Each structure stands twice: as C-alpha cells, then as structure tokens.
Amino acid sequence: MNTSYKPRLAILISGKGSNLQSFIDAIQMNVIDAEIVCVISNNPDAPGLEKAEAAGIPCQALDHRQFPDRDSFDVALAELLEGYKPNLILLCGFMRILTPAFVERFAGMMMNIHPSLLPKYPGLHTQQRAIEAGDTKTGATVHFVTSELDGGPPIIQAEVPILEGDTAETLGSRVFEKENLIYPMAVRWYCQGRLSLSNGRACLFGRPLPPTGFAFQG
Ligand code: GAR
Questions:
Q1: In angstroms, what is the span from residue 36 Cα to ligand 1's centroid?
Q2: Same CATH fold, 113-218 and 1-106?
Q3: Per-block average pLDDT, block size 10, for the chain (218 residues)?
C-alpha cells in the first residue's frame, strides 16, 4: 500500500466559508489526513474564496448565472470537479439545489452540513423557524447527499439547546460552533475508511448508524 496517498477533498462553497476554514485547520493540525485539491464557488464574490487562496488551495468561481439552466451548470461543475479526481466532495454552505444526475454521478462520495436537526427544517432560515415553532432544541446535521434537498442519510447530529431570549443570530452562532466540530469528525472517519454509504444508510465500521446519525456529545 502506498502510505503517502492522501484522500482528495473537493469543497463547494457559496459564502463565508467558515466550514471550509475548519477543514483547512483540521488538516493543518493533522486531525484529518487529507488534501484539499480545490475550492469551487458558484458565487464569484464568496469570501470563502479568499480563505482558500490564503491557504494556497486552488480555487475558482463557476458562476451559475452564466449558464442557461440548472442542468448545464451541473454538467460543467461535474466536469470541473472530475478534473481534480476527488475522493470526497464537501458542500460547505453551497446554496444550490443539485440535479439528480449530478448527485448520482457522485453517489456515496458527497456530504453536506445543515444547521438543523434533520429531518426538521430543511432549506433556509432554520433557526428562526425553530424559535417560532417553540422548539427547545435545535442543532446541526452532517449527512450524505442525495437528490432530496438536505435529505440524505444522516452521519452525525449535534444538539444545541434553545435558550430564553435567543435570536436567530445568537442561536445560529452556537450551532455554528458545533458545525465546525462535527463536519471534520465525519470527514476524518471517511478518510480513515470507517464511514460509507451502504444501502441508503450511513455506516460506521460497516454497521448502519441510527436514522438520525451518530449523536455527538460535547
Ligand atoms: C452553514 O451554517 C451551513 O450549515 C449552511 O450554510 C452555512 C454556511 O456557512 N448550509 C445550509 O444551510 C445547507 N442547506 P459557511 O459558508 O460559513 O461554512
């Protein structure tokens, strides 16, 4: 076995890129033994592109507005990604709905993080919706990507209590802290060959995880 081989991560962003930064840091601190081979943003103004550039990672924008429709954008994105030969594709705040054809092409090798306890609150404004519903807790979920929006098999979930007087911002920032812990944890498992998608379930050491994923404590 070639021991110098490192899994190749491709990261897709649309905005700030703080989850991207958590991967840059985790690799630098040897928490994850992998290489980020590219960062691609559908938004040319995404601040995350600067984070990638500062870390010396190849990065580029592929502006979805330059394409006539979703299918042609996804074909171009898939071709661009394949050029980097990724082993794992990470959606880090990539705010585009992906076509089933794209998802199928990268089945079992694409993860997303979402700021809610899925299956609750897929989509946008998750914290506001949890507060308005009177929920006592929310959280974040890392999951494998399927063609259902924020709907693939969960890998890890972290809970965050909703406190009296919380706003979407105060709650969101506490959820964010958990995001930056659980996403690298899932990717570390994947890079160690411990985590896979099998028969529609996320499996750790070959055994299916609970339907809401591994319950992160801490
Ligand atoms: C994160 O909170 C992530 O969970 C969310 O976008 C934010 C991106 O932040 N993703 C979704 O809502 C996916 N449906 P970042 O750009 O700073 O990593």
A1: 18
A2: yes
A3: 79 97 97 98 98 98 98 98 98 96 97 98 97 98 94 97 98 97 98 96 97 95
How, if at all, do strands 195-198 and 154-161 pair? unpaired
CATH fold of 113-218 reads: Rossmann fold (3.40.50)
What is the 44 CA–ligand 1 centroid distance (Å)? 17
Question: Largest Cα–Cα distance in the chain?
Answer: 55
Instruction: Give pLDDT, residue 182.
Output: 98
The reported pLDDT for the residue numbered 216 is 97
User: Is residue 15 within 6 Å of ligand 1 at its C-beta?
Assistant: yes
Nearest CA to ligand 1 atom 11: 114
16 CB within 6 A, ligand 1: yes
Q: What residues are annotated to the active site?
A: 114
Ligand 1 centroid, distance to 1 Cα (angstroms): 36
Taking each helix axis from N to C terminus, what angle separates 168-191 and 18-28, rounded to the nearest 10 degrees?
40
Ordered by start, the domain boundaries in the chain are 1-106, 113-218
pTM > 0.85:
yes
Tell me the C-alpha distance between 157 and 178, whole Å.
Answer: 9
- What's residue 218's pLDDT? 82
Check if 184 has its Cβ closer than 6 Å to any atom of ligand 1: no
- Residue 12's nearest CA partner among 72, 68, 80 is 80
1-106 CATH pick, 3.40.50.170, 3.90.1070.10, 1.10.580.10, 3.90.180.10: 3.40.50.170
